[in-house]
Amino acid sequence: MVSNTALLQPRRTFAKASATLLLALLAGCQTMVPKGPVAPPPPSDAVGTSQLPTDSERHRIALLVPTSGENAGVGQSIADAANLALLDTGTTKLRVTTYDTATGAAAAVNRALADGNRLILGPLLADDVRAVSTIAAKADVPVLSFSNDISVAGKGTYVLGFTPGQSISRVVRYAKAQGKTRFAGLIPNGAYGKRASAILISAAEQTGATVVAMQSYDRSPASLAVAVKKLQANQGYDAVLIADSGRFAVQAVPLIRKNGGANAQILGTELWNTETGLAASPVMQGAMFASVSDAMFNQFSARYKARFGRSPYRLASLGYDAVLLTIRIAGNWKPGTNFPSQALTDPGGFAGVDGAFRFRSGAVAERALEVQQIEAGKFTIISPAPRKFDE
Prior knowledge:
alpha/beta; elongated; four-stranded parallel β-sheet; single chain; 2 domains; Rossmann fold
């Protein structure tokens, strides 16, 4: 999750694909990008540039990510991906300047605004988004953040990150369609857990299912064991959501099997999609979770690795997709004027590395998600993500 916790690791495997194929795939959901060999734009400006050249033909876009400190790896990966989007499309309409939030998010956005940027991409952490949003709103500059914390959305701030609520809702709906009607929840304490429990209850109610048990724990083995045993008092649940990382799921599943959930369907969240060793765990076979599709991310990863010599972090796709979105809108955006935020609410949505997405209620990206199941030591797609939005 992209709040103020440890960030995700580089993705596991990559497949080769040409730039032509990648751009063709990204053309869905009405998102159009330039095609053909075009001279690439110059690299994005240096971090923290205080004076930019006069530029009347290009839009000034600020990318706010940590490029120093403990989260420098993921921040630099996002910045590299944003630059790769410029190179892939050959656009000459954008100037993207990177500002380091690790030295202070408020200072970073103040520099960005002083430099004349009219759109903020980022930041990554929820607290940084809050600090940036207040300042950017006063300047009437929208923020397209990479956080997954929906509480930061609104008043000109949009959430592009992968939100757990949508993942939970998708996998619960799928499980209900497979005949599961009595759900249980194993929920970690904290803000993430509170949101997960609320979404589980809502999703179950909307599908006509029932949540028969819900237990929380404090992410220690002892607390987890106690929570699982308490679930046993509500025997008869046929599916249980473990709203936590795969590391805790691997600990929880054997306890569930021994304490009233021998045949229960194990469900997870989007957090599982980044954990390289999860599919190999014998106890996790048959478990299901929902996430954005990896098909195009794997192609993007191959291009990223070929250019930068290393694998991207999974969240790097957010930087790439944010630039693609901006390029599309830039066609009807006069340089030097305010960003046309109303264009973000196009009901047809946008397409990118992570599939189709759009902004509707609450300024949070609604994403088309797939359901995967762990079987035979790998993640298998059992319900593909829609290619576009129907309504």
